[in-house]
Amino acid sequence: MSDSTYPVTTANKVNRYKHQATYDIDTIHTIVNTTPVLHVSFVPNPAIPLPIVLPMIGQLGLYNPLSPPSEEDGEWHCYLHGYVSSRLMNLADAALKRGEPGLPLCVAATKVDGFVLTLTPNSHNYNYRSAVLQGHATIVDDVDEKLWAMRLITNSVVPDRYENTRVPPDGAEMQSTRILKMQIESASGKVREGVPEDERKDMEREDVLDKVWTGVVPVYEKLGEPQAGPYNRVAAVLEHVARFVKEENEKREKYAFEAAHKPAPLKRPAKKSET
After folding, report:
1. Distance (Å, whole) CA 133 – CA 65
2. Which Pfam families does this UniProt record tie to the protein (predicted)?
3. CB count, 10 Å around CB of 124?
4. Fewer Cβ atoms within 10 Å of its own Cβ: the N or the C terminal residue of the chain?
5. How many distinct structural domains can be found in the chain?
6. Are 42 and 51 in contact (CB under 8 A)?
7. Each residue of 67-122: pLDDT tens digit?
């Protein structure tokens, strides 16, 4: 891996709309780490090669027990949270027992930032960000790394949430929870931002331009007002929750509206052989 990008290989090379492709590490990691639900695909039985896709909670992280993490000190992994007896965990465990490097996985993350409405149905689009990771996953057996990953994943939902709960997890919780970590062997992303774009043949038709509204409908997830639970005894919403809701809503709305006004991406015609 280079300092700032994932290497382009046959496994992760983007063939369609190459101008929207990105292999930038920071961009890909941001997409994954700001997506609440990751979609994890795997083949449970090689004899019946029908893939399964599971929605899971996960996070990219850099674990280093000796010092603050940095690119020089460790390797990024995708950590996935699951139940001890789930099929995915059992398959990963079985793969190691067979002497394999782990369970082959593909992890995908997608964020929709806008509906791009154009002159014709064929050119409608989304403003979006997506990322795909590929690699082999193993069970985290080291207790310190497992606790670190549990904290990482919990705080990816609401920052500082782990420290504001009853921790550490007790024995039963540690036994019932398993963490998978996937070594990232290839990764790529695609990003589309900008205003609508149409073919010249339609842009030259005054009758079409006069009757079809074009533009972008910004799309973003909005966090609602926190609602107290039935046994809550804390009078006010804690600061880390209130701050997260406010800042997250502002950030998401700002990105979606800014993306809606950017110039149309430079379109590079695809070769006939591209798929």
Report:
1. 24
2. Pyridox_ox_2
3. 13
4. C
5. 1
6. yes
7. 665 555 578 999 999 999 999 999 999 999 999 999 999 999 999 999 999 999 99
Asked if residues 8 and 187 have their Cβ atoms less than 8 Å apart, the reply is: no
Sign of CA dihedral 118, 123, 125, 127: negative
Assess whether pLDDT exceeds 70 at residue 132: yes
Domain membership flag for residue 274: no
Read off the CATH number of the domain in which 24 is found.
2.30.110.10
Q: Which two tokens stand for residue 30?
A: 């941001």
Domain, as residue range, for 105 = 18-261
Tens digits of residue pLDDT in 163-219: 999 999 999 999 999 999 999 999 999 999 999 999 999 999 999 999 999 999 999
Take residue 59 and report the two structure tokens written for it. Answer: 């996070």
Residue type, 223: L
CA atoms of 142 and 179, how far apart (whole Å): 10
Q: Which residues, other chains included, contact 105 with Cβ-Cβ below 8 Å and sequence gap of 6+? A: 40, 41, 42, 133, 134, 135, 136, 137, 180, 182
CB neighbours of 249 closer than 8 A, spacing ≥ 6? 222, 223
* Residue that has been written with the tokens 């909005």 in this structure: 222
3-class DSSP string for the chain: CCCCECCCCCCCCCCCCHHHEECEHHHHHHHHHCCCCEEEEECCCCCCCCCEEEEECEEEEECCCCCCCCCCCCCEEEEEEEECCCHHHHHHHHHHHCCCCCEEEEEEEEEEEEEEECCCHHHCEEEEEEEEEEEEEEECCCHHHHHHHHHHHHHHHCCCCHHHCCCCCCHHHHHHEEEEEEEEEEEEEEEECCCCCCCHHHHCCHHHHHHCCCEEEECCCCCCCCCCCCCCCCCCCCHHHHHHHHHHHHHHHHHHHHHHHCCCCCCCCCCCCCC
